[in-house]
Amino acid sequence: MKKLKRSARLVEMTQYLLARPHTLISLTAFAERYQSAKSSISEDLAIIKEVFEDEGIGELNTLAGAAGGVRFVPKCRKDQALEKIISICRELEQPDRLLPGGYLYMTDLLGQPAMMQEVGRMFASAFSDRNIDVIMTVETKGIPLAHATAQYLNLPVVIVRRDHKVTEGSAVSINYVSGSTKRIQTMSLARRALKEASRVLIIDDFMKAGGTIQGMVDLLHEFRAVVAGVGVFVESGEVDNEERLLHDYVSLARLTEVDLKSRQINVQPGNFF
């Protein structure tokens, strides 16, 4: 690209880093891209690093050595994230969101790109140090959450299907018991979708007893994969620990009270906070 003034170079470098999270970029690559000396590039990166950290955007990690460079790791400050989650909790407490069985209608929120980006950044911040290879979710409502998280971790997304699709080739299918309804259900994953021994981050929109997520964990065993973490947008707080099938997870919001008669809903920040 053409040689830029320093102010323009700072803007372009910032955008370049934001678009490539968790990617190691060498100083040589930057120097060649902007036709500038490495010393100038280092000064620019120091400025960007300071702004990223002061504004809670993330970290700019430096790796020394011939094969070194810089890597942008998206992060979110807990105070900023908490403010956004409290706003989401107030949205979820609207009485008209209450569905039979104590579930909440969340599809409209899951369809808001800006909100999903914020949620995805929170998950990415929570699991940034887990050495993850791929993100998994089950169709359909978990898909926007998984893709938003994948954007900040720069990882592929694998989608578990309720019914096997012929267009996906051979698949592994298992039966699992739904923790909330106690019904036996089926989920499947195409064999080509996941490499053996992958480290997987599971993302889901809602967890009651954890039956669906436990089903995904069991499915991963068939691929000899490792569960690197579990992230849940909203968890139900009305399930006893003895009934819950999963205990090691990160939740962003917690449904603590549902009164079907009065249509009162109480949602609080989850265990991430």
Automatic annotation (TrEMBL):
Gene3D superfamilies: 3.40.50.2020, Winged helix-like DNA-binding domain superfamily/Winged helix DNA-binding domain. Residues 5-74 form the Bacterial purine repressor N-terminal domain. Residues 108-244 form the Phosphoribosyltransferase domain. One of its GO terms (biological process) is negative regulation of DNA-templated transcription. SUPFAM superfamilies: PRTase-like, Winged helix' DNA-binding domain. The keyword Transcription applies. Keywords: DNA-binding, Transcription, Transcription regulation. Signal peptide: none annotated. One of its GO terms (molecular function) is DNA binding. Homodimer. Belongs to the purine/pyrimidine phosphoribosyltransferase family. PurR subfamily. This is Pur operon repressor.
